[in-house]
Amino acid sequence: MSPFWSYWYFHVPNFILAAIMYTLLGRLALGFFVPENWDNFIWRGFRLVTDPVVRVVRFITPDVLAQPVVLVFATLWLMALRLGYFLFLFNAGLTPAASGTN
Question: What SS3 state is found at 23?
Fold first, then answer.
């Protein structure tokens, strides 16, 4: 069996969290050049993927913060979540071995 599927519980959530995190960064970067209500399909895709995370972070952050700051905080929260998930699995002995080790 492939090493990927042997540790699917590690790789799949990590990939999903990373994809959302990098999409948030893409939305942040693109947001400096386009209006928030732009009707382009790429922008709508960014918003479709990231709006659930942004809503949660917006709920726990003060209302005085601008949208770009909320996007930065959302990215940081996802980084912390990825790290926490890794540490949880590492301490439980469920992470894959580093490549190149015997």
Answer: helix
Q: How far apart are CA 91 and CA 77, in angstroms?
A: 21
Banded model confidence at residue 12, pLDDT cuts 50, 70, 90: very high
Nearby residues of 43 by Cβ (< 8 Å), 6 or more positions away: 30, 34
Return the amino acid letter for 86: F
- Length, in residues, of the chain: 102
d(CA 17, CA 2): 22
pLDDT above 80 (res 3) = no
The structure's pTM equals 0.86
